[in-house]
């Protein structure tokens, strides 16, 4: 049910591509380079964690890559199609067709039931909201029995699993996670990460996850390290210890530079 | 804490705009009609002219007091609630409830003073205009000279001040009882259930309205235009009762309209219906001013036109007293309309702005801005339909008995244009405010909206 449709769309082997993306905040004279020329290419079916200390540009990276924010310079391609130069409405339509989100704060709509939350992106896109498909995705994340509960009646871990089901139901080209385990206890965090991993391994979903937690990052196939708006390192087949070790040194390198 | 109150006022002038506006308008009206007292006592008036002016000042003054307390309480409660975070912060750094109370009452007191000061000039001018109107319609002798001050200013000052500080105390009490997390959970689990107290209140007010309607139709049958005194109040009590039943009524109307709204609005209609079902409690707050406005405006205007038709049919010219009553009716309606409009706009603005995060979440789930605005418009439309419907039913408590007494018919006299105008105003105010606030709320990027 997480069957990928990207191949049918463009045939591009890349799910996400950034070419020297820059994002500058602030007024003239008081500018901050949140992203300073980031280039990368992520293949389909990859699970990538993006790590970095606070202020490294992780969130900006995610927002620019996912079409939530316009880069100051550079180009972003999702599934072979460029994101730039669109107005807000066109970007929204692009996002709801090709991008799924999972946020730290879940961002489920409080007035809708679990089932209604999951089918919402399909309805908004004017697609047929197949209840069987939504039910199957919810069963997959272990919430097949909770279809008619409201988000406020669920635990944090359950809400995040609803959010994952909602992100997967449109079969996006890329699923972006913004600290998806940041508000969860250890056990729920593990469930959520396992679900993301399963979506990648079994169904070829592409996942990009921003996190500051080395354990969360260790679930990914590879880790990108971000510092001061630049990619400063990459690690494949990460373990929590190796990631933590690397992060410690990243801070070592940065602190003297700032001071 | 008083120093903090002053700094807060200066820093957050915008947040107090609605409270200030209702105090300013209240003080203006109170002083305008207060000057009729001044003129009646010191301006050389006598006989019926004097009586007219005193009646006018007391009736409108009484209404004004009620409206000022009501409007100031509702606007201040909202502005205090919106600052829940700031108040929690003050608590966490050691402000006692007593100090917070002093701060908020202090803010209200300063606002009241400023409002009265600003209102003196407009009130003096409006009072002069009112006297000229009374003279030109022959209700007051032409040799009466205009006096403004000795009674009008203290009356405006004291009433506005007492109303404002009283309303502030009420607002603090209500906010203290409600914690921030509670109010959020409230929004999520709101089922539209009503407390027994509220239902009892609604039944009581509806019975009062019904009682006055029956009294009008029976005991007042031979009293001519004096029947206005009971008929006029019937719709006010009925409207309060209807407004208290708001949550139930919204659910009923939504149940009836859901299919149509969803068919017409597609996914935006679907979202509007979901929200209407889940947020009946909050929507009821915005419903109240719509019901009051529709009921009192429709009821009083058609009562007056029925009266005019009855006099015409009898071949009678209006007496001075009857002209007085007509002027008073129109003035009171004008006041109620203005205050109801302020309350409606303020409540809707606050409620819609408060939903900024929800709108952001919806956009992250794939809504375009246009879809969010479409949903808000449909919700506003259903809200208006419910409010106008309930208000119209309440207005019948006045109109039907009065028409039966004065014309001996079940139907009132008057142009349908009046009703269309009242309805149109309700629609414009509701939709204009909700859409304006929503448009502002969706202007920021969706990600920024959900992190606030």
UniProtKB/TrEMBL annotation, chain A:
Q: Which GO terms describe its molecular function?
A: ATP binding; ATP hydrolysis activity; transmembrane transporter activity
Q: Where is the ABC transporter domain?
A: 16-253
Naming one, the record's GO cellular component terms include:
membrane protein complex
Q: Name one Pfam family in it.
A: ABC_tran
What keywords is this UniProt entry annotated with? ATP-binding, Nucleotide-binding, Transport
Q: Which InterPro entries match?
A: AAA+_ATPase, ABC_transporter-like_ATP-bd, ABC_transporter-like_CS, ABC_transpr_LolD-like, MacB-like_ATP-bd, P-loop_NTPase
| Stored CDD domains | ABC_MJ0796_LolCDE_FtsE
| PROSITE patterns linked to this entry | ABC_TRANSPORTER_1, ABC_TRANSPORTER_2
Tell me what this protein is called: ABC transporter ATP-binding protein
From TrEMBL, chain B:
- Key word Transmembrane present in the record? yes
Tell me the organism. Actinomadura rudentiformis
Superkingdom of the organism of origin? Bacteria
* A GO MF term: transmembrane transporter activity
Compartments (UniProt record)? Cell membrane
Task: Tell me which UniProt keywords the record has, alphabetically.
Answer: Cell membrane, Membrane, Transmembrane, Transmembrane helix
Show where the ABC3 transporter permease C-terminal domain sits.
63-174, 331-445
Please give the name of this protein: FtsX-like permease family protein
Topology of this chain in the membrane: Multi-pass membrane protein
Q: Does the keyword Acyltransferase apply?
A: no
The UniProt family comment states: Belongs to the ABC-4 integral membrane protein family.
Q: Which InterPro entries match?
A: ABC3_permease_C, Macrolide_Exporter_MacB
Q: Which GO terms describe its cellular component?
A: plasma membrane
Q: Which residues cross the membrane?
A: 12-33, 53-73, 108-131, 151-172, 199-219, 231-250, 283-303, 328-351, 372-397, 417-438
Which Pfam families is this protein grouped with? FtsX
């Amino acid at each position: 049910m997480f069957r990928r449709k990207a191949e049918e769309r463009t045939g591009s082997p890349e799910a996400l591509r950034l070419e020297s993306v820059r994002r500058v905040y602030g007024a003239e004279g008081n500018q901050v380079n949140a992203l300073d020329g980031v280039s990368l290419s992520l293949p389909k079916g990859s699970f990538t964690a993006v790590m970095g200390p606070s202020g490294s540009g992780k969130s900006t990276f995610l927002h620019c890559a996912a079409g939530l924010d316009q880069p100051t310079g550079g180009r972003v391609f999702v599934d072979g199609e460029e994101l730039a130069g669109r107005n807000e409405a066109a970007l929204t339509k692009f996002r709801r067709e090709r991008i799924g989100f999972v946020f730290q704060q879940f961002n489920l709509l409080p007035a809708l039931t679990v089932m209604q939350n999951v089918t919402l992106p399909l309805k908004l896109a004017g697609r047929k909201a197949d209840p069987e498909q939504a039910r199957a995705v919810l069963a997959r994340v272990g919430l097949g029995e909770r279809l008619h509960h409201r988000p406020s009646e669920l635990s944090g871990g359950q809400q995040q699993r609803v959010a994952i089901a909602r992100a997967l139901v449109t079969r996006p080209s890329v699923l972006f996670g913004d600290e998806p385990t940041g508000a969860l206890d250890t056990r729920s965090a593990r469930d959520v990460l396992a679900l993301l991993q399963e979506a990648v391994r079994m169904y070829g979903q592409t996942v990009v996850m921003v996190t500051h937690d080395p354990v969360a990052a260790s679930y990914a196939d590879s880790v990108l390290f971000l510092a001061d708006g630049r990619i400063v390192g990459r690690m494949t087949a990460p373990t929590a210890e190796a990631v933590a070790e690397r992060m410690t040194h990243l801070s070592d390198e940065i602190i003297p530079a700032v001071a | 804490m008083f120093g903090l109150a002053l700094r807060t006022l200066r820093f957050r002038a915008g947040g107090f705009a609605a409270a200030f506006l209702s105090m300013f308008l209240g003080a203006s009206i109170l002083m305008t009609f207060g000057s009729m007292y001044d003129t009646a006592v010191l301006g050389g008036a006598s006989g019926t002219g004097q009586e007219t002016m005193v009646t006018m000042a007391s009736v409108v003054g009484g209404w004004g007091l009620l409206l000022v307390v009501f409007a100031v309480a509702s606007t201040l409660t909202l502005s205090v609630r919106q600052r829940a975070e700031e108040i929690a912060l003050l608590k966490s750094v050691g402000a006692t409830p007593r100090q917070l109370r002093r701060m908020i009452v202090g803010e209200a007191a300063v606002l009241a003073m400023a409002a009265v000061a600003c209102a003196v000039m407009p009130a003096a001018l409006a009072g002069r205009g009112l006297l000229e109107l009374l003279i030109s319609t022959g209700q007051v002798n032409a040799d009466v000279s205009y006096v403004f001050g000795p009674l009008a200013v203290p009356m405006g000052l004291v009433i506005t001040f007492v109303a404002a500080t009283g309303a502030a105390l009420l607002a603090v009490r209500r906010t203290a009882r409600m914690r921030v997390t509670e109010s959020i959970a409230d929004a999520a689990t709101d089922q539209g259930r009503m407390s027994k107290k509220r239902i009892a209140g609604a039944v009581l007010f509806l019975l009062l309205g019904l009682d006055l309607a029956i009294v009008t139709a029976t005991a007042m049958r031979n009293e001519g235009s004096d029947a206005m005194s009971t008929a006029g109040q019937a719709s006010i009590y009925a409207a309060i009762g209807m407004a208290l039943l708001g949550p139930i009524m919204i659910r009923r109307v939504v149940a009836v309209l859901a299919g149509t709204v969803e068919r017409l609005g597609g996914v935006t209609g679907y979202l509007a219906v979901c929200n209407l079902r889940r947020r009946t409690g909050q929507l009821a707050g915005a419903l109240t001013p719509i019901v009051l406005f529709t009921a009192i405006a429709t009821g009083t205007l058609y009562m007056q036109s029925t009266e005019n038709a009855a006099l015409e049919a009898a071949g009678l010219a209006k007496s001075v007293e009857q002209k007085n009553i007509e002027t008073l009716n129109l003035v009171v309606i004008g006041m109620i309309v203005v205050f109801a409009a302020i309350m409606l706009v303020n409540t809707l603005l606050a409620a819609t702005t408060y939903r900024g995060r929800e709108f952001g979440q919806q956009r992250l789930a794939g809504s375009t801005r246009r879809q969010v605005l479409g949903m808000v418009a449909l919700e506003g439309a259903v809200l208006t339909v419910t409010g106008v419907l309930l208000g119209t039913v309440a207005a019948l408590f006045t109109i039907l008995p009065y028409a039966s007494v004065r014309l001996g018919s079940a139907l009132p006299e008057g142009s349908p244009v009046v009703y269309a105008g009242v309805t149109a105003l309700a629609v414009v105010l509701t939709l204009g405010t909700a859409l304006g606030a929503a448009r502002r709320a969706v202007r920021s990027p969706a990600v920024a909206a959900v992190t606030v």
